[in-house]
Amino acid sequence: MAKIRGAVVVDVERCKGCVICVNACPTNVLSMSKDVNGKGYSFSYMENPEACTGCMSCSLVCPDVVITVYRMKVNE
Amino acid sequence: MSISIQDIIKEENKVFSKTKLLTDKVFSYCPGCGHGVAHRIIMEVIEEMGIVNQTIGVAPVGCSVLAYDFMDIDMQQAAHGRAPAVATGISRVFPDKYVFTYQGDGDLAAIGTAETIHACSRGENIIIFFINNGIYGMTGGQMAPTTLEGMKTSTSPHGRDLHQMGFPIKMTEIVAQLDGVQFATRQAVHTPSAVRKTKKAVKKAFENVKNKKGVSFIEIVSNCNSGWKLAPVKANEWMEEFMFPVYPIGDIKG
Amino acid sequence: MGELRLMKGNEAIAEAAIRCGCDAYFGYPITPQSEILEYLTLQNPEKTTGMVVLQAESEIAAINMVYGAAACGKKALTSSSSPGISLKQEGISYIAGAELPAVIVNVVRGGPGLGTIQPSQSDYFQSVKGGGHGDYKLIVLAPNSVQEQYDFVKLGFDLAFKYRNPVLILSDGAIGQMMEKVQISDFTPRWTEEEIVQMTGSWATHGKPETRKHNIVTSLNLQPEPQEEHNHHLQRKYKEIEDNELRYEKFFCEDAEYVFVAYGTSSRLCQKAIQLGREKGLKLGLLRPITLFPFPKKQIKMATKKAKAFLAVEMSAGQMVEDVQLAVKGKRPVKHFGRYGGMIPMPDEILEAMEELIAKVEKKEAKKAQKKAKKKAEKEAKKQKN
């Protein structure tokens, strides 16, 4: 059965840790890091990557345009 | 067969990345601020329409005064409130170019009210982007003409008192009544669906310029986490609960 | 060469703009300069040369429209009279700060406040000492005839683009309203889009091509260091303008013992006063600054070699006189004569003021001579006693 899998790459150093993407993700993929970046912000990351469908919700609302989204069809 | 993340993160699978019309400079905006999304959408539309060599933007005085540092297009910085007059000057001498202003509520709805109304009244072939967050962000959270009743700011520390300070001004409804305005809409950028709708409106506005239809006026109701003293997600919830009833989302004209 | 025409000073500004390849005029009605906008709307040059003419909602809007057009590398003009020019000061400061070429015309009327609609020269300080905020200079041209009103529009644009600096044509209600013959020039075509890109592509906003970085027109620096550097750059530019663009005129100065310093309408009144004075045997001359910035400081200083005193004649309570005093540096008496609030002095009033000054200087000289003679006599007497 064909399935859509996605993944996001967060530009960690540009992320300001606003959490809006975490809130926007419909499949609860994203979480905030315990570490901080060079500016002292905690940043978002894929805590639950298998759930990502590459729907772009996170990237659409990201105020700092730090998220790149990938998506592919997978036959399982 | 299990697929690793590395298999997905490949150039051919890329579905979203930063438009090249945004520079590599980190936005000077506070975490969670809607300016960044608004900037991105506008630049994406310009890139998608392939009109960067015909587009001139006008930055205001306010938080987005440095918009030209982030938008990789030709831009002018205008005096406080005067962006619609500056845009008029550009559009009149370059009638075939795409000219837009990007203004906040203090800039557009207070000091620049006359310039806004008359550029709209003349039906200048421009786009006016109006970011309304109900507060003066850059100067540190003072009361704006759009500040809600009872809202606490640094110059209405006990809450906006309508008897003393007047009522919130609804610019988009006002300009929608002017014959020079082709398209007046109020949108937001806090959820994926809101962003999609706003982008559609932005695209329509640029199409209007192409077809010389006069003013397209796009208000974006946005947050000011620092000014409102709320965390970004909370600020967006507050915006939905309190801003949207006063500034309802949707097309008003055109 | 074009034809000779009888024209009003304000009309000359408008006709010159159409003919010198001006791209846009943005204005707002105010007496005594409304004919500029009226003439332009009647001529409707958009149909002929393509020049845009637009009545703005305010002087503030008009100057900001000029900012927008000028930042595109276009030749943009605005005009107003004193109260309206006050409103434009914010925009003028931004234009100077962002280094944009533009021409602004002030057909001065009496002030302060709403004042009068009659001619005055009381906006000198505003014109040459800043007017708006920040350290900046305008190139200030002061016409004294309708012909110069005409000629200075082209000259203004030439200088504005040469230095990327706003140029102010400081006229007054008399020159704006009076009619004189004018030698009209032929049409100079407006710059084509290609020419504009070629001439202004390094700084103006035309829409970013792939071949260059984006152009940004701004007067803002959030950090003080680059802003100080920008100010240094501006000051170097103003020095260069002072070195290269001084314009002035001398009238009967060769043998003059007493020199009027006057610009614009006042300079013409002084010419008549000189004629009347010369008939009485008075050796009078006139030094007329044509540019008020740069100001003919050196020329006035040089004139102290021959001149015994200077009379600054202005239709103001005394503004330019301060610059004359700075140039003379106390070496000779410098006095001011003026009528103001919309009043124009008569040549005989001006001559009278000069005669008063002459009398004072001569009295002082006589006293000096007397003192000298007395001292000499005393010395002689002492000698004889011994």
Description of the structure:
The complex is a heterotrimer of chains A (76), B (254) and C (386). In chain A, 13% of the residues lie in helices and 39% in strands. Chain A has 2 helices and 4 strands; from the N terminus they run βαββαβ. Chain A has helices at 20-24, 57-61; strands at residues 2-10, 30-36, 42-46, 67-75. In chain A, the strands form 2 sheets. In chain A, strands 1-4 form a two-stranded antiparallel sheet. In chain A, strands 2-3 form a two-stranded antiparallel ribbon. In chain A, a hairpin with a 5-residue loop joins strand 2 (30-36) and strand 3 (42-46). Chain B has 254 residues and is of the alpha/beta class. The model of chain B has no long low-confidence stretch (mean pLDDT 97). Chain C folds into 2 domains: 4-244, Rossmann fold (3-Layer(aba) Sandwich), CATH 3.40.50; 248-372, Rossmann fold, CATH 3.40.50.920. In chain C, helix 10 packs across helix 13 (347-385) and helix 11 crosses helix 12 (320-328). The model of chain C has no long low-confidence stretch (mean pLDDT 97). Chain B binds chain C through residues 51-56, 58-59, 65-66, 68, 71-79, 82, 85-94, 97-98, 114-115, 117-118, and chain C through 23-24, 26, 52, 54, 56-58, 60-62, 64-72, 74, 76, 90-91, 94, 98, 205-210, 214-220, 222.
Residues in β-strands, percent of chain A: 35-45%
Q: What integer is the average pLDDT of chain A?
A: 96
CATH architecture of the largest domain in chain C: 3-Layer(aba) Sandwich
Regions with little confidence, pLDDT below 50 for 5+ residues of chain C: none
Oligomeric state of the chains?
heterotrimer
Structural class computed from helices and strand pairing of chain A: mainly beta
Across the major sheet of chain C, the strand order is 3-2-4-5-7-6-13
- Largest interface, Cβ cutoff 8 Å: B-C, 37 and 40 residues
Could you give a quick summary of the protein structure above?
By secondary structure, chain A is mainly beta.
Features:
heterotrimer; B: 254 residues; alpha/beta; Rossmann fold; 7-stranded mixed sheet; two-stranded antiparallel sheet; 11 helices; 10 strands; C: 386 residues; 18% strand; elongated
Question: What topology does this entry show?
Answer:
The complex is a heterotrimer of chains A (76), B (254) and C (386).
Chain A: E1 2-10, H1 20-24, E2 30-36, E3 42-46, H2 57-61, E4 67-75
Chain B: H1 5-8, E1 14-16, H2 35-49, E2 55-59, H3 67-70, E3 74-77, H4 83-93, E4 98-104, H5 105-111, H6 113-122, E5 127-132, E6 135-136, E7 142-143, H7 162-165, H8 171-176, E8 181-188, H9 192-210, E9 215-221, H10 225-228, H11 232-246, E10 250-253
Parallel strand pairs in B: 2-3, 2-4, 4-5, 5-9, 8-9
Antiparallel strand pairs in B: 6-7, 8-10
Helix pairs in contact in B: 2-9, 4-6, 5-6
Chain C: E1 4-8, H1 9-19, E2 24-27, H2 34-43, E3 52-55, H3 59-70, E4 76-80, H4 82-97, E5 102-108, H5 124-128, E6 139-141, H6 146-163, E7 166-172, H7 173-177, E8 179-183, H8 193-200, E9 216-217, H9 224-244, E10 248-251, E11 258-261, H10 264-279, E12 284-289, E13 291-293, H11 297-303, E14 309-313, H12 320-328, E15 334-337, H13 347-385
Parallel strand pairs in C: 2-3, 2-4, 4-5, 5-7, 6-7, 11-12, 11-14, 14-15
Antiparallel strand pairs in C: 1-8, 6-13, 10-12
Helix pairs in contact in C: 1-2, 1-6, 3-4, 10-13, 11-12
